Amino acid sequence: VVRRLARGASLGPNYSSHSLRAGLATSAFAQGVSEQEIQRHGRWKDRLSLDRYIRPVAFASRPNIVAAFR
């Protein structure tokens, strides 16, 4: 669904449901939410899995959704 909608919005083929998870993790991390809280909220079982989703450069200038943690 995410991939289809991203293509329809001319965003390109490189989006998936994992993009949403990465956006949440990256935004929360950038706003100072603890790694443990991000891991719990995203249901990542270990820290190495979470590390693959935090992409500070990719989302640095986009609106964040850290409010989901509050």
Output the keywords.
70 residues, disordered C terminus, mainly alpha
Characterize the structure shown:
By secondary structure, the protein is an all-alpha fold. The chain has 4 helices and no strands. Helix 2 (17-30) packs antiparallel against helix 3 (35-42).
Helix-strand layout with pairing:
Layout: H1 2-8, H2 17-30, H3 35-42, H4 47-51
User: Helix amount, in percent?
Assistant: 40-55%
Mean pLDDT: 78
> Secondary-structure element sequence?
HHHH
List the total number of helices.
Answer: 4
Could you tell me the strand content as a percent range?
under 5%
β-strand number: 0
Tell me the span between the first and last alpha carbons.
Answer: 27 Å
Structure class:
mainly alpha
**Shape descriptor:** elongated
Which value, in Å, is the CA radius of gyration? 12 Å
Strand count, sense and barrel status of the largest sheet are: none
Q: Give the low-confidence spans.
A: 65-70
Summarize the structure.
The chain has 70 residues and is mainly alpha-helical. The protein has helices at 2-8, 17-30, 35-42, 47-51.
